[in-house]
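hey
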């Protein structure tokens, strides 16, 4: 065991390997990226690389420059400050080369550094109560900072288990699947459903289901169970597109768009999968790579509310 441990330490004492690691890391951060068309799971896996990169980075630094070994609060604070500065600089440079800046990436970088601190704290020879408390705090902070990513992983597993249900709000994570555009959304208390308010003063006000089971080939219908919470009828448009839609410049005639009249109270909108499939004018929609379902209202004079109870395939 000691021999194996010494071999690992020897690896992280190699300055040549450290230089190679830095080159590969810079290439990855500034030349590679997860495609915007990738699934949320793939994007989260890509984002998680920040944890690994800063974990390995500090293993090298601590073994090459012994002063950085986190033996006291001063050195721990220095590691965290360096991580914050370096990760912030990386995000700033990425914004200058056409990449998107992300606060989540900075938090994940901090998680990688905290994990290294926790490992070295656990490796101290005298495990006193204070050391145990510090280790517990370090790993608790890691979980808190990394929770949005962990939550996405959990929800992706739930999505697979829920199919053919795309969203029924039986999971506390489901709100993260939805996005409001010039609208507000929140889970209704004591009732399964997403309360959505479409706002006036915009050309379009919409809510969008972005994360769901996306292989629709084996199904015949898409059903949307929705309640009109107003006292009068309203018009709601449904827009559906696949991942290839971006390549066709998001053209109106390259997606499914249909308007429905919602009577006050409960409504179930039923859409034939075959109709969705044949909606693009110049091609067949890829029914195994559906990207988004949008519920849209346009040119509202006052706000309107609906409650989405369930979206499912049949």
């Amino acid at each position: 065991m000691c021999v194996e441990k010494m071999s690992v330490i020897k690896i992280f004492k190699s300055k040549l390997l450290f230089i190679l690691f830095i080159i590969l890391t810079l290439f990855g951060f500034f030349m590679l990226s997860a495609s915007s068309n990738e699934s949320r799971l793939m994007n989260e896996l890509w984002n998680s690389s920040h944890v690994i990169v800063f974990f390995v980075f500090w293993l090298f630094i601590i073994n090459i420059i012994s002063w950085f070994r986190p033996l006291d609060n001063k050195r721990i604070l220095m590691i965290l400050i360096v991580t914050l500065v370096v990760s912030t600089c990386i995000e700033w440079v990425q914004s200058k080369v056409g990449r998107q800046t992300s606060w989540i990436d900075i938090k994940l970088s901090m998680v990688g550094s905290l994990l290294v601190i926790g490992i070295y704290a656990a490796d101290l020879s005298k495990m006193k109560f204070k050391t145990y408390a510090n280790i517990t705090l370090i790993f608790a902070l890691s979980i808190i900072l990394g929770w949005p990513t962990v939550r996405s992983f959990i929800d992706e597993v739930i999505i697979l288990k829920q199919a053919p249900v795309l969203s029924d709000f039986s999971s506390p994570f489901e709100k993260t699947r939805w996005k409001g555009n010039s609208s507000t959304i929140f889970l209704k208390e004591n009732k399964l459903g997403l309360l959505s308010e479409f706002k006036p003063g915009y050309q379009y006000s919409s809510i969008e289901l972005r994360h769901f089971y996306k292989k629709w080939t084996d199904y015949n219908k898409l059903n949307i169970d929705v309640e009109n919470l107003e006292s009068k009828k309203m018009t709601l448009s449904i827009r559906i597109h696949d991942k290839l839609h971006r390549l066709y410049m998001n053209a109106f005639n390259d997606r499914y768009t249909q308007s429905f009249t919602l009577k006050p109270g409960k409504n179930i909108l039923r859409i034939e999968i075959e109709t969705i499939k044949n909606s693009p004018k110049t091609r067949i929609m890829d029914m195994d790579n559906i990207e988004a379902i949008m519920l849209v209202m346009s040119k509202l004079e006052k706000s309107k509310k609906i409650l989405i109870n369930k979206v499912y395939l049949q």
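Residues 2-161 form one domain. The mean pLDDT is 84.
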